[in-house]
Design a protein that fits this description.
With about 80 residues, this protein is mainly α. Helices cover about 70% and strands about 0% of the residues. The mean pLDDT is about 90.
Length: about 80
């Protein structure tokens, strides 16, 4: 996986914390080390994930992991969708 793809996933992960009120948007951007345009894409993906998690009954952490795993799979498609083989 390229460094940029890992940075994007890191940006999505940090941005979920921002959407949950645990970090500021600026802190999430700093953690991601992405350019403004790329961070905006990661931040939008995190908003979608956070919305889906917040609409869930039951264990929200399980739902977060499920949705974040889907995002990882998208970025590992060039490995056949599997990070670990």
């Amino acid at each position: 996986m390229s460094k940029e793809k890992v940075k994007h996933l890191n940006g999505v992960f940090a941005s979920v914390f921002a959407h949950a009120g645990r970090l500021t948007k600026e802190e999430a951007k700093e953690i991601s080390n992405l350019a403004d345009h790329e961070f905006d894409k990661a931040y939008e993906k995190a908003a979608i994930i956070t919305d889906k998690v917040m609409q869930t009954d039951g264990n929200k952490m399980d739902k977060f992991l499920e949705h974040f795993a889907e995002e990882i799979e998208k970025y590992t498609e060039h490995y056949g969708g599997k990070l670990f083989e």
